[in-house]
Design the sequence.
């Protein structure tokens, strides 16, 4: 556990560096399947960005609603919009990676910035703030995809899990071991995409257009992280435990395709959490050397929650800290349930 706290502290106490305002040509890519209502809200926000040199690549992924009409309507009024109309393909039916590949190939520019149709950039400087992390070496940029806040326990638990996940992938990227990113807020170059042959090595896996791609393509030299307020996007989270559990089951089943070293590190962190709680409760109940045990337990809580606090402050999630104790326990139990459930049945609904 001390090993992980040391790694996480690198992000918690890190500071953003001053960057020059970029003048890169950028293709902002949005893949949408039956997202007409979301696109009506998102597209004006993207067109209103304080960035001059960008095109908006809108991918209609074989939608059956009014998505195509919404995209065509905006494109008729804005010359910066490029439409990619994807038809059903029997070989790649329902595969977002296929649609994204067509969109990436159609994009005019080398530098690509991705978000989802149900996301909203928190600032009109989102493109600027994300793109300024590119350099001659940094060809992948990992951003933070937040969830909209409300007062329910489920909402706070989902956001806590998202915060903890971001703490991990940002921290590992800082030590030169990037292993995932989120498609809600992600940027990379065409060169990186084609260097690993796009999604070809995991095309048959329904999920993973973001994390499996980053797991394969990212390395210590080509990856940057950004966590400034202007770089954050916000989405609507699941509103029922059943839907969220299914979503997490898919994510965990995807993680088994990560590099073995990454699987080991992530699995060991979860095991270390369980062992800590087992040992802490056991030693406290048995009152074995309380003058030694209790200060050690207290020190772990203090360090861990300080790391969480400073990380949450960076990512605009400070309201989660007050009840982080309960979220931590709940998440450990839920992840254990999901892990056991995935051993006996695969999540087949997407």
Sequence:
């Amino acid at each position: 556990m001390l090993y992980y706290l040391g790694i996480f502290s690198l992000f918690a106490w890190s500071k953003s560096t001053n960057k020059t305002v970029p003048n890169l040509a950028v293709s902002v890519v949005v893949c949408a399947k039956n997202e007409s209502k979301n696109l009506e809200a998102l597209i004006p926000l993207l067109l209103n960005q304080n960035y001059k040199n960008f095109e908006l690549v809108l991918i209609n992924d074989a939608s059956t609603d009014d998505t195509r009409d919404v995209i065509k309507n905006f494109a008729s009024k804005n010359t910066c919009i490029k439409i990619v109309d994807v038809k059903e393909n029997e070989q790649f039916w329902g595969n977002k990676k296929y649609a994204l590949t067509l969109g990436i190939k159609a994009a005019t520019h080398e530098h690509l910035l991705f978000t989802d149709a149900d996301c909203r950039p928190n600032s009109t400087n989102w493109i600027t703030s994300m793109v300024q992390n590119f350099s001659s070496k940094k060809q992948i940029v990992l951003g933070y995809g937040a969830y909209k806040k409300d007062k329910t326990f489920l909402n706070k638990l989902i956001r806590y899990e998202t915060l903890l996940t971001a703490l991990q992938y940002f921290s590992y990227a800082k030590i030169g071991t990037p292993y995932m990113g989120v498609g809600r807020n992600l940027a990379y170059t065409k060169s990186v995409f084609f260097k690993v042959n796009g999604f070809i090595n995991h095309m048959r896996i329904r999920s993973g257009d973001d994390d499996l791609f980053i797991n394969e393509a990212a390395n210590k030299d080509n990856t940057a992280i950004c966590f400034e307020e202007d770089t954050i996007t916000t989405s609507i989270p699941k509103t029922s435990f059943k839907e969220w559990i299914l979503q997490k089951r898919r994510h965990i089943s995807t993680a088994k395709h990560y590099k073995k070293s990454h699987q080991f590190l992530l699995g060991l962190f979860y095991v270390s959490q369980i062992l800590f709680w087992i040992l802490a409760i056991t030693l406290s109940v048995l009152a074995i050397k309380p003058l030694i045990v209790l200060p050690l337990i207290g020190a772990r809580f203090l360090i861990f929650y300080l790391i969480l606090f400073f990380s949450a402050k960076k990512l605009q999630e400070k309201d989660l800290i007050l009840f982080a104790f309960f979220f931590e326990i709940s998440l450990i139990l839920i992840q254990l349930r999901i892990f056991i459930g995935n051993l006996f049945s695969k999540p087949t609904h997407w």
Q: What stands out?
A: Residues 15-151+178-238 form a domain with the Spore Coat Polysaccharide Biosynthesis Protein SpsA; Chain A fold (CATH 3.90.550.10). The two ends are 34 Å apart (CA to CA).
